[in-house]
Design goal:
The protein is α+β, with helices and mostly antiparallel strands. The chain has two domains: 91 residues, Outer Surface Protein A, domain 3; 289 residues, Protocatechuate 4,5-dioxygenase, Chain B (3-Layer(aba) Sandwich), CATH 3.40.830. It contains 15 helices and 13 strands. The strands form three sheets. Strands 4, 5, 6, 9, 10, 11, 12 and 13 form an eight-stranded mixed β-sheet that branches. A three-stranded antiparallel β-sheet has the order 1-2-3, with no helix packed on it. Helix 6 packs across helix 11 and helix 13 runs antiparallel to helix 14. The model has no long low-confidence stretch (mean pLDDT 94).
């Protein structure tokens, strides 16, 4: 059977945009297997939805008419499916071959290169020092936490919007960053959905040099979780920014000195909202916490949780944000921050469940897991901001920084 007979989309990033004055859809692959993207008329959105592995092109054309009142000629549907296939956007042998090649290239490289350098921040180390030092100077005098501190909560929003929050939290955490001989990074995985843990043995690089990954600890985690499960989404490390943006600050605060990492992408807990148990009761998460806790007794471990808070407004599929919504957002964020500062992972999860995660908090997994790993701790807030997320300022992202002794 030809690979496009029953077309099924791979997980893709689909955004509404205006293209040449018309409502359109920008379709991109988070893994960038083919380095292609598609811009489609918005009317083809239902056709993408019907590429579910259950409909052939004739059934898609018929369903568009019968279910949506959209009449599109069969040859247009066939051309759409062919374009999706050529871009490696479909789950089939062609994309599987592309994924295997991309994964092998990633693993064979000496390190995971900084993807955003030269765009989101300077790629030249000298320019980057000046860039970060400007933010640190503008943050003013802030007392550093003791070197014995255990946990940092850092945003991972772009530096242009969140730089002053990064500066405040990392300035408070400078002695913690310098003293650590192992840094566990628990970071939001924006792409792989409910995959709870995604590991890699690859090193991470910043413009200052290479931060080596502790492969032995990764091997322990993979053995406990299951090799296939632990590395199923490994390629997402190539595209995901949440680790890169925090380890670049870490490297800066260490004045370019390397430190071993355990870089971990953590997926959404949204599917656990209806569960009466705590997320830590999930077998994979329990194994992760147990192994990292044992490691923490032998090393000077710093845990960096990379996460932002709420994402609300049209950019995230919700209603425009006005004065009332902003006030409600602050009540929501204050409730979360209070529980986080108390080191209360269970209470934090209770607030998320109470709101049914309606604010789309992307840092749920990193924040929760880092507190569970740290044990009894208390934190101090180090910056908070509500950042615009669209041109009309009707969508926002809230971020905060925290340091824990």
């Amino acid at each position: 059977m030809p690979p496009t007979t029953l077309p099924k989309l791979r997980p893709l990033d689909i955004q509404q945009i205006m293209h040449e004055g018309r409502p359109s859809l920008l379709v991109q692959d988070p893994l960038n297997l083919s380095e292609r993207y598609l811009v489609l008329p918005q009317a083809l959105g239902p056709a993408l939805m019907l590429c579910d592995g259950q409909h052939d092109t004739q059934a898609i054309a018929a369903a568009l008419v019968g279910n949506f009142g959209i009449r599109i000629e069969l040859d247009v549907v066939e051309a759409l499916v062919e374009a999706l296939d050529q871009a490696l956007f479909l789950e089939n042998e062609r994309s599987a071959t592309g994924m295997a090649a991309a994964l092998q290239a990633y693993r064979d490289a000496p390190f995971r290169a900084p993807r955003i350098a030269g765009d989101g921040y300077p790629a030249d180390p000298g320019e980057l020092r000046l860039f970060f030092d400007k933010y640190l100077h503008e943050a003013g005098p802030l007392p550093p936490m003791p070197a014995s501190g255990k946990v940092i909560f850092s945003p991972h929003i772009d530096y242009q919007r969140g730089g002053h929050v990064y500066a405040r939290v990392w300035k408070r955490a400078v002695e913690m960053a310098k003293a650590a001989d192992l840094v566990v990074v628990l970071a939001t995985d924006h792409f792989s959905g409910d995959n709870q843990i995604t590991l890699t043995r690859q090193n991470y690089a910043t413009p200052y040099g290479v931060l080596p990954t502790n492969a032995a600890i990764v091997d322990q985690l993979a053995e406990a979780i299951g090799e296939d499960k632990a590395f199923a989404g490994e390629l997402y490390h190539t595209r995901e920014h949440s680790i890169e943006l925090v380890v670049t600050w870490l490297h800066h605060m260490r004045e370019g000195r390397p430190v071993e990492l355990v870089p971990i992408l953590t997926g959404s807990f949204h599917h656990l909202l209806g569960n009466s148990n705590q997320p830590e009761d999930e077998p994979a998460l329990r194994a992760l916490l147990d192994i990292l806790a044992e490691t923490s007794t032998e090393r000077h471990v710093l845990v960096v949780a990379s996460g932002d808070l709420a994402h609300i407004g049209p950019a995230f599929g919700a209603e425009p944000v006005g004065i009332i919504e902003r006030a409600d957002l602050r009540v929501h964020d204050d409730a979360l921050i209070e529980r986080l500062a108390a080191g209360d992972a269970n209470g934090f999860w209770d607030v998320i469940k109470r709101y049914e995660d309606s604010k789309n908090v992307c840092g749920v997994a990193p924040f929760y897991l880092s507190l569970k790993l740290a044990g009894p701790v208390e934190g101090e807030q180090a910056g908070y901001a509500v950042c615009p997320a669209d041109q009309n300022n009707t969508s926002v992202v809230s971020v905060c920084g925290m340091v824990f002794g």
